[in-house]
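Reminder to self: tokens first, then the designed residues, so the page reads top to bottom the way the pipeline ran.
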């Protein structure tokens, strides 16, 4: 079995300064904490990284900076998805030239392509750029579902190596795992489904909660991959409430507030997202000591 991507991949936040620019020193601090905690990889400029509000130049700057900063110490996956196929190809070329290990391509959003349109979109990107693609299926954000039959057609392409399954439909996830080949990577995109997903044969997790719990999350996923289910189950239930907390409001509002309270970055989040409610802040405050304890 030759899987390019297995384990925990942190969908990292993008820190901003008070004047709404990328906070590069804070970004480096976040990245170093992830590497020190031995995650298998980091996903840059995904939804958690507020990619919809990044300028095209900022997006490209992060892609190039990330590879140089990580310098081979873990895998680097770049978010290159767009509802404009030509723009995705352009970003994929930047990711490839920068030296990324792979790129994450979301279902096109808003324009709601048909199954054939989805197929042609992903295939056009895979044909244009020789860089491994992880497709990202998340109907809740894109209004379209990547059906398993379409995914199987795409999995025949040499550059399409996996999927981030965030459909929320465990039946679809099992169908994908059952019907794809031994070299195809199936990663879950919902932290709170990690344990059942891995028990069904999943390869790992693209995680929000690992921003604040990188060691705990990656140890739990490695236990799953090793078949150490008692250890994995105990670890999973310890962090389940924190996983749910990161989804108390639209991602990345809660996780960015958590990372600020842990001292990693400013609270600034770009409109149309905004700061969390008082109720969410109170829930975060109640979990902070546990987060610190778990990551000792």
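Designed residues (296 positions):
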């Amino acid at each position: 079995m030759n899987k390019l991507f297995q384990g925990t991949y942190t969908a990292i936040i993008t820190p901003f300064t008070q004047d709404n620019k990328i906070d590069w020193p804070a970004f480096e601090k976040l990245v170093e904490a992830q590497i020190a905690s031995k995650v298998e990889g980091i996903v840059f400029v995904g939804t958690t990284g507020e990619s919809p509000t990044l300028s095209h130049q900022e997006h490209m700057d992060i892609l190039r900076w990330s590879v140089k900063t990580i310098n081979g110490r873990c895998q680097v996956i770049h978010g290159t998805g767009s509802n404009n196929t030509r723009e995705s190809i352009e970003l994929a070329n930047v990711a490839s030239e920068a030296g990324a290990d792979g790129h994450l391509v979301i279902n096109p959003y808003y324009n709601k392509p048909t199954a054939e349109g989805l197929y042609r979109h992903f295939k056009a990107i895979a044909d244009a750029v020789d860089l491994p693609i992880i497709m990202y299926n998340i109907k809740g954000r894109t209004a379209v579902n990547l059906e398993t039959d379409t995914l199987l057609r795409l999995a025949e392409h040499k550059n399409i190596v996996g999927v981030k399954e965030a459909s929320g439909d465990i039946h679809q996830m099992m169908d994908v795992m059952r019907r794809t080949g031994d070299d195809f990577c199936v990663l879950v995109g919902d932290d709170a489904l990690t344990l059942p997903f891995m028990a069904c044969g999943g390869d790992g997790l693209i995680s929000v909660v690992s921003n604040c719990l990188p060691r705990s999350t990656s140890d739990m996923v490695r236990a799953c991959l090793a078949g150490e289910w008692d250890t994995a189950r105990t670890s999973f239930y310890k962090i389940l409430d924190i996983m749910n907390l990161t989804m108390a409001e639209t991602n990345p509002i809660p996780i960015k507030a958590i990372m600020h309270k842990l001292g990693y970055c400013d609270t600034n989040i770009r409109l149309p997202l905004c700061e969390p409610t008082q109720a969410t802040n109170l829930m975060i405050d109640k979990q902070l000591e546990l987060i610190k304890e778990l990551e000792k």
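The chain has a mean pLDDT of 96.
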